[in-house]
Amino acid sequence: MGQFQPQPQGSAEAEAILQGITQQLQGLQETVAAQLGDDIGRLQQQKQQLLAEITQLQQECQRLQADHDVTLSRQQLAQQQLWAKQLAQALMVQLQARLSQSGATSTLPQTAEQLGTLDASLHRTLQTLQQDLNSYQSSLSQQVSRMHSMEHQGEAILEALVHRLSQQLQEQLQQPLPRTPPSPATHALHPAAAVPSAPSHRDAASRLGRRSVEHLAASDSRRLSPRRSRRPLLGPGPLWLWPLSLALHSVLVGVVAWGGTLGGVTTAAVLPMTWPNLLALVWWRDGTTLLPLTALLAHWQHPHVWQEIRQLWQLTDRRPLGRVLASGGFLFVSLVLCFQGIAQAGPAVAIALLCGYPLISDPLEAFLRGHSPSALTTMALFALVMGLVFTATGVSWPGIAFPLLAAAAYGLYWLTQYLSQLSRLGPGADLRPAQPLHPMTITLLQTGVLFLLATAAVLLSAVSGMAVIPTENPMGFYGAGLGLAGLAVLGHWASSRGPAWRQALVPATVPLLTALLAVVCLPSAPVLGPIQWIGIVLISLGLITSGRERWLRQRPQP
pTM surpassing 0.85? Predict the structure, then answer.
């Protein structure tokens, strides 16, 4: 036991020594780790510095290489110039030596021959250049003279048409007019004519007024309510709101597509006029404001409108209803194509080309009435053709195609609209029943068809994954739709103010008024040239002549 006692003490000392060594090793490890970390950080900094220096040296090397290349090229150029000078001097010495050896008498003829050859070559070159310049000048002169001749022809046609119109109007004004109350009118987005109402079948068959792409307001209030007079209470002013509202409607579509100034407010393009955006704009315009206000206006002007719609729906003969619905479909197609034409070529050109619809409607009218067009109608159609050709000058193919397709669709709309006016309600209703359809009934049904077709198109766009409401500028989209609907309702109301002859002639000013407003409000739209202005004036004169002829055929006979 005496030998076993010191052992715990030695073990404790060993543990203490081991712990001390461990602590020393840990301290040494920490010291070495700290030094290594410092060395690594310093090496990293040196590495970054070396990389920066290497990059700088590379850039300097590239710069020096570029300078060397430039210097080398300059030296080479200088060396080449020096060699050229030396070669020239050597050649000069050789030539002088040879010239001194050969006689002056033998050299002069050869020199004269060479000079003559050189002079002949230069003369031929100058003659060729002169001929080319003369040909270019003659071509330009022919083109300029052709332009002048076209301008003179347009001026001559315009003067002859104005002279003929003035003579016809003077003759007509000298004839006594019957004092018949104004009749209900049908209205167009562009020129339209008044359609007189009469109780006889013969007068009903002669109602061939053009219907509106935008508005169709009619008033037969003398037949429905003696208390309502169709005489304008405010003079000719409200009637002139009709073409003004139509022109502003087209210009507002141009502002949506092109941007511009309207009402003192300058704005950029509201949204791109893609097909989904265009259909959504038509849907918003027709569904939110135009359809409800048209229903209210129809009930105000014709209280029996809902009864007529119910009777029309209950007819066993579906042809009258089919004509009305078909006219609304053609109206929708014409409206959409017109909007796209405005987006492609601007409102001035698009509306002027759309006003060529009498080229379709007048021959159809002559065919349905069984008579040949008069000489004045033929002249009006010729003026329209010339106006369309002049207006389409310099316009892109889409800018021409869409308005002309819209005019064709409007011509078909006019045909179905005319057949709808012949439709009547009564026992065994067909084309010869007892009671004719009121124009406001047709207007309300057509507006409903517009809204339904626009809704179907928007739903198809939504099913295809396209945005129903444009996301580019939603507030501008909503404001544009409300503004278009408000202008449509304003023109709808103003179109029935005034006598029938004004309702037939005033809308002919829409193309010219639209062009003037486009110049003021749409600086970013395509600029019209002088030929295009002549074309728009010819179209307006042709529409005035066509409207006057239609009014003379449709006015009540004394």
Answer: no
